[in-house]
Amino acid sequence: MLTRLSIVAAAAFVLISADVANAQPARSANWLTNARAYRSSMGRTITFRCPPLRGRRSKAVYGSNPYTIDSGVCWAGVHSGRLTRAGGYVTIRIIPGRSRYVGSRRYGKRSLRWGRYHTSFRVIRGRPLGGVVARPAQPAVRPMRPRVAARNIGWLHAPRAYRGRFGTVLTYRCRPAPRRLTKAVWGSGFYTIDSGVCKAALHAGRIGRAGGIVRIRITRGRKAYYPSYKRGIRSKRWGRFHTSFIFL
Length: 248
What we know:
alpha+beta; Ferric Hydroxamate Uptake Protein, Chain A, domain 1; 2 domains; five-stranded mixed beta sheet
């Protein structure tokens, strides 16, 4: 006759056997590896084996769990608190993209902010080498802000009415982009106040052509505004101008 203890032991053995049977081998990674190869594998779970960090090899990380799919998986493990620089195993899940990614500094690694992106991953588990227990994931700390209604605007809108009103924060909702984007944009990062907000947001990576919500701050003018080509948008060069805006 089976005792209660033997029944429990048998059940545990069955569960462990099922986990082993379903487990996938860990993929070898280095500290520059990202997850771009799994862009079309929505919902898939992948485990990577990260070696001990040697030297000062660094890979950018965008977001605060979730991360953009081109972020370094080993560094995302460190940033999320699931891994250490001693290396180990980190498991991620491929999930849909987000409208924005919040940057933060955690466990000695700074992640960057980003706008809309097509695919994300979330770090769900970690097991450091050497038997060291990883620290629990630290949630992103976001200051509470009063909700501000976003003003609907088209792709020709520029905030010229706020000339000289430095420090003013404005929230806009850009409609989907028209076929042709005719409004000019001057600058990169800092834009002249007569630049198109939505087109500048696309240039800065804050929204896609589907539109979305953006926040800007009116700032003092610059001595020079530098051109660049980003995400299909070419911004123009300009000299001294009285007022600028930046994205938050």
